[in-house]
Amino acid sequence: MNVLFPLMAVLIWSLNAVVSKASATAIDPAAISFYRWLLALLTLTPFVLPGLLRNFQAVKQYWWKLLILGLLGMVLYQSLAYYAAHSVSALFMGILNSLIPLLTVVISLFLLSVVPTVGIALGCIISFAGLVWLVSAGDPAQLLQHGIGKGELMMFCASAAYALYGVLTKRWAIPLPNWQSLYAQIVFGVLLLLPNFLLANDVSLTVHNIPLVLFAGIPASIIAPFLWIQGVIRLGANKASIFMNLSPIFTAIIAVLFLHEHLQSYHIIGGGITLAGVVIAQRLRKPLFGGACPPAEK
Asked: What are the distances in angstroms from CA 167 to CA 103, 135, 164, 211, 286?
């Protein structure tokens, strides 16, 4: 039963990729970004704020780190995805999100002094080949003529931002309980999102976009992180991370069923190669330059 926690978290996040795509025609990206985190903030306030006030000294000491985490996790990651959804498919968004574990490992090489492994080297090469195939729709030669689209670049930057968020969270180890730290990050995220929200042309809520905001603000922002944390506690971070590999599969199924997107051969080939690279990076732990294998994370 413990596997249900990370499994359900990944399923909700996969649904959120489809919600992000659906929001492209229903609400301004600046509006859903702001409403999402404002809703999460208001929902968590009665439960988290009293404890956070008791730890206010820690907030004062580490405010700038919490602000940076809020910028990466609450502003750049999801906001870029909402903007990218105007030009890329939910299928593509799901595959790019599956790159986050690999990008996390790569960034950890520089910020956490993680030992480079054969798996990381091979995984990067294989995943890069898969991405080239995916972005070019099975015709890599066209990238030389047309380059990478703005939406594709936004999604890659979004995934990189969240990978950096995860690495900095581990490196800084801010001495606050998980939910209090998340709450403080959301506060900064809402403040950072406010100027763009105020500049948006249309931020109205309608019967068509309110369900999207509700899903993004509660299941995707609160319930899924809770389930994921419980999964990590019960299974360990290393085992729980394996379930992230299911994200593009879940997203593809949901996008085909509910958005009627067409699963093309280049999605399967490029996505499969990309995912294979991620799995290889996770599993092959032999050091690239000799020495003992790094200990497996529990």
From this structure: 10, 26, 5, 32, 21
Do the domain assignments include residue 152? yes
- Domain assignment of residue 114, yes or no: yes
**Residue range(s) defining the domain that contains residue 77:** 4-283
pLDDT score for 291: 59
pLDDT, average across residues 214-226: 94
- At 39 the pLDDT is 97
How confident is the model at residue 82, as a pLDDT? 95
Residue 294 inside a domain? The answer is no
Region 192-215: mean pLDDT is 95
Distances (CA, A) of 39 to 77, 115, 195: 17, 40, 17
Residues in the chain: 298
pTM of the full predicted structure?
Answer: 0.89
Q: What domain count does the chain have?
A: 1
Angle at 279 between CA 274 and CA 281, to 5 degrees: 95
